Amino acid sequence: MADPKGFLSTPRQEWPRRPVEERVRDWDEVYVPGALLPIISKQADRCMDCGVPFCHQACPLGNLIPEWNDLVSREDWRAASERLHATNNFPEFTGRLCPAPCEAGCVLAINQPAVTIKNVECAIADRAWEEGFVPPRPPDRLSGRTVAVIGSGPTGLAAAQQLTRAGHTVAVYEKDDRLGGLMRYGIPAFKMEKRQLERRLEQMRAEGTKFRVSTAVGRDVGAAELRARHDAVVIATGATAWRELDIPGRDLAGVHQAMEYLPLSNRVCEGDLQVSPLSAAGRHVVIVGGGDTGADCLGTAVREGAASVTQLDIYAQPGAERDEDAEPWPTYPKVYRLSAAHQEAGALRTAPAADADARLFAASTLRFTGDEDGHVRELHLVEVDAGRRPLPGTERVLPADLVLLALGFSGPDRRDGLIDQLGIALAPRGTIVRDPGFATNVPGVFVAGDAARGQSLIVWAIAEGRAVAAAVDRHLTGGSRLPTPIGPYDRPMIV
């Protein structure tokens, strides 16, 4: 604890964002380059070095937050990187994409703004890459065992890196033409530039992990064949079966799933396309769904030059402060948050029918109507109460040339045949069933991440990857020194 009174003398200061008018003209990350390091040591000083640091419990990775806060406050970046990477394979991802449940569990947050844990984490990760503190760590010797990891999202990559470093020969199979899963084609570049992903993949290649892209297991290679070829298989395909909105007009042209829209805009950034076939340019866009995926669509549509963009959230607008009775500290509270995309939409007034940040809260979609050519033109909505019941007399109509459904995901996609070919057992909600050791009902086949847990956060995905790696290592060798940060049935701290 470098400054025992840091939390009293230093106010919270976050990584500043670039001006809205500048950043909506490009796809670069929204933050001011180089503006984090000058402030971060003083921000790390605000850590109280609590006797019982609840930030540990709030983060499923078990990140050693007080330890690396102290090291950053002393500007010992090498040691801080070692402590950070001891629990997190990819802190440059989580430092940009995680909603920071650790900050909700910060003891300082009981009566003050929390420590900027997420910013400190990102600063350490970026400094580690700049200084060369994260070289490849290939194993000293090979075990002679082989593992197939299906899926290259954060769960699959974390599992693959841990197992490779343990000495196993690992091949990662990815159905898309590039690696990264949703980090590649689901997350817009303004939230995380793809160079962050590429340099970590290069590290993994140098460690010995093999990658097979454009290979859908179950379609391009038989699932049973893959199982016979390897000593163990890890399913880390994520939960990509999107939820539908079964209302009149759903079949109109111009109504699309968010994950049909976002990958195309990412492919434009990758150079595959000049213009997205679903570009929002000049169109009235309505996004149905109030979560992070909806916000990603919002920021993307703004950058594409939409005529207007409105986001609908079926829940009422949350308050600015934690409700101590309903969501006591240290749980992650549902409070009003202003993402970079909402800030942009508010500043540019993209949604004349909505409030300051382009969101309409407590709004439920009734139906879509279209023109004589069968293209959507209007979205009909109604206000709802806390029980999602329509309020009489509140129906409204929004212009809508492009509607994006961002309603979440129910479980793994079965269309490739992987699950059915192996005979994998599913739970009623569509996720894969597993035992306390992350194993499925098929011998030698394990599952981790959203495919089994259901839609979750990137920190849970990485924790699952680390944990399943330990389970597979034990299966192959009879024991493991790999960490197991969570169990398959662990859940976030909630009321």
From TrEMBL:
Keyword Oxidoreductase found: yes
Pfam families for the chain: Fer4_20, Pyr_redox_2
Pathway connected to this protein: Amino-acid biosynthesis
Keywords (A to Z) from UniProt: Amino-acid biosynthesis, Glutamate biosynthesis, Oxidoreductase
SUPFAM superfamilies: alpha-helical ferredoxin (SSF46548), Nucleotide-binding domain (SSF51971)
InterPro entries assigned: 4Fe4S_Fe-S-bd, DPD_II, FAD/NAD-bd_sf, FAD/NAD-binding_dom, Glut_synth_ssu1, Glutamate_Synthase, Helical_ferredxn
Domain 4Fe-4S ferredoxin-type: 38-69
Name by which UniProt lists this protein: Glutamate synthase subunit beta
Native source species: Streptomyces similanensis
